[in-house]
Amino acid sequence: MKNEEIRQLVEQLTLEEKASLCSGKDMFSTQDIPRLQIPSCTLSDGPHGVRKQEGEQDFMGQNVSVTATCFPAACATGSSFDPELLKEMGQSLGQNCQKEHVQVLLGPGINIKRSPLCGRNFEYFSEDPYVSGVLGAAYIKGVQSEGVGTCLKHFLANSQENRRRTQSSEMDERTLREIYISAFEYALKESKPWSVMASYNKIHGIYATENKTYLKTLLRDEWNYEGAVISDWAAVHDRVEVVKGGCALTMPGDKGQDHLIIEAVENGELSLKDLDSCCEQMIGLAMKGKKGSREVLPYDYEKAHELARKVSEESMVLLKNEEHVLPIDSQQKKIAMIGKFAEIPRYQGRGSSQINAYRVPSILDVVKDEKDVCYTEGFDFGEETDKEKLLQAVMLAQKSDVAVIFAGLPPVMESEGYDRWTMKLPLCQNELIEAVSNVQKNTIVVLQNGSPVEMPWADKVNGIVEAYLGGEAVCEAIWNVLTGKVNPSGHLAETFPKKLSDNPSYLFWPGEGDRVEYNEGIYVGYRYYATKEMDVQFPFGHGLSYTTFEYTDLSVDRDTFSAGDTIQADVTVKNTGNRAGKALVQLYVGVLLNTMTVKRPVRELKGFKKVFLNPGESRTISFTLDKRAFAYWDKEAHNWRVAEGTYEIQAGWSAEEVCLGKQIEAEDEFIPTGIVYTIMTPICDVKKNPVGKEFLTRIMPMAEGIIKRMGKNKGSEPMPYEELRPLNMGLLSEPLQTLKRMLPNITEDEWKSVLAEMNSIERIE
Ligand code: BGC
Hints:
5-stranded parallel beta sheet, binds beta-D-glucopyranose
C-alpha cells in the first residue's frame, strides 16, 4: 500500500481508533479496525522457530505453543558464517509462519555479545557487528521472501539481562556507533525488516522505547527507515512518551491505558503529527501482513527437520583435533558415550524463544543401531560429582577405543531474564572430563551450550566439538560430524577466553545499580584480545576441518585509498587435503597503530566467504572494500571518517592468526566538525584541516631545519625502534604556538589569516 493511501486511511480514523492502534489487541496481535478494513497482525516469537500459543499466552515461554520446527539458535548459526544458509532457514521459518497464520516473526536478535555471561547470548549471533549484521540481514531476507515480516531486535545496547528493564547503557558515541549500532545499521539498510523492536533498557538515561535520538533521528532521519517500531513486551512505562518517541506499538495489549493518548492529544501534550505517524506505521504493517498472507502447501515438518540438521552441521565448530582422533570410524571402533546430554540433549535456550520442537532425537536414538556404542550417564545436571557414576564412566572409557563426552550447560545456567554467574561448567563435568582423559587418550568433548565456557581440561583431551544449541536435529548433525559423513566448517563468531576475568567487560559487568558503563569502549571481543595480543582458549574465527587449506596470492587493485574509492581485494584458497570441505575466507583490515592519531583495534573483520572445495581445487575470492572498511566514528565530526595512515588488508585463519597482508596508504578525509582552531591547537590536529595541512607542508621544513641545526648531530642519531615511533611524537604534539616562536619571520597577520581560513572551512551549516 502506498504511503499516500495509508495517510488517507489515517485521516479517516477517529481519535479513539488512532489511540487503539498504538497498543496490542492482546498478547500477540495488533488492533484491527474492521470498518476501514484494517486487519490485525499476529506476531510470534522467534527467532529460531515459531512459538505461537493457541492456549494461554505469555512472553517468557512458560505455556505450550504449537508444534514447530526448532532450528539452531543464533549462537550456532552465527558460526556458520553462511548468509545463504541463513536465508534458506529464514524461508523455511516463513513457511512455518504461513502455516500458523503468523504475519510477523519476532526475530532476528542481533545484539552484540559483550560478555560471555549475558543470559541471552544464545539468541545472538556474534561479538562482531559486521557478522551480526550480515547474518541478520540474510535471515530477514529469507523470512520476508515468504510474505512474512520480521522484527529486528532488541534495539538498542541491550547486551545483558541483569536489571534489563531498568538499567541504562552508558557509553561514548564512538562505541555506540562502531559496535552496538552498526549491526542494526547493516541489517536494516540491507534487508528492510518490516519492524524493529525497541528494547527494555535505557540508553543514556532514556528508555529505548521513548528515545527520539535513536527511534527518530537515527532510524527515520538518518537511515530513512519506513517500517514499524514496536516495544518489547512490557517495555513501555509511559504511553504518551512512547508515541512522542516514535515507538508505534505498545506490547502486549494495554487497552486500559489508551485513554492517556486521547487525553494527551486533547490537552495539547501530544501532537497529532506524532500520533498519526505511529498509526501510519501500524497500518503499513497490517497491510503488508494482509498482502503477504497466503495459503501454503501443507508444511512439511520432515523436510524442515532435514534443513535444521543441515544448518546444525554447517554451524558446528571443530575446536580441537589432535592425532586425528576425529572422524571416528564407527565400524572399527568401540565408542564410549558418556554424559547426561547424550540422553537429554540441549538444543535451545530458555525464555521467549523456546519452541515446541517437532522431533528431537537424542544421540542415543541416533546410534541405536550401531553395534559398538555403549552409554553411561557420568554426571547429573547439578554441581556435585556422583562418585559411582564417575567410576562407571572411567571403566567404560578404559575398555573402549574412544570416549565421547557430551558436556554442556544445564538449562538453568542460561536463560532469558537473568545472566550467567560463572563461565565455568558444573564441577562434576570438569571432574569427569579430567578423570576420563586420564585413562583414555582418545577423548572427545562435545559441548552443548549457548555461550563460551572455561575449559581447564582443554590440553588433556584430543578432540573438542562445539555444537552450541543446535536445534531439533542437533544430535543427528553431531553424529554426522563425529563420523566424518559431514566435514565440519563452522567457525567461532565469538572468542572463547581462557577465563572470565580475561574478558574486557569483566571489571564493569554488570554495572553498578542501574548504571551500566561500557568502559571497555570499542574493545569488545577480538578487538580487545587481538589488540592486547592475549592468549585465548580459542579465537574468533577459529574452526578446523578434516581437510587442510592454503591461502595465497592476496592482491589489492590499488595501493592508496581515499574516501569515496572502493578497493578490490582478491585471495586464492586451495584445498590441500584429501577430502572435500568448506573453507571460511576471512578478510580483516588492520591498522598499523604507529601511523594513527586515533586508537584503533589491531584488526577488524570486513569480509568473509565460505567456499566449498574438492581436494586439490582452488578458487579466487574477491572482496570489495569501501569507506566503511577503513573508517572510524569521529566523535567531533559525528560521522564516519577515514584517517590518514597505513592500513593492512589481511587474510587469515582467525582474528589472532593472519597469514597474508597487503599494505595500503589512506588519505585523510576532511569532515567539518565545528572545532575552533587557535594558536594553542596541537600541530597534529591542525594537520586534519586541509588549509592547516597545506600551511604546515610549507612551514614545517623550516622548523625542522632549525631543530636539526640546534641539536647539531641529534637529527642524525640512530633512533631505536624507529618503526614504533608515533608520528605525533615531539614537535607534532606541540601547539602551533611553538612554531610561531620558532619562525618569527611569519607575520602576526599571516597567523591570523591562516587560523581564520582554517576555522571558516570547519563551520557546520
Ligand atoms: C523478549 C522478546 C520477545 C517478547 C515476546 C520478551 O520477553 O525480550 O525478545 O520477542 O518477549 O515474547
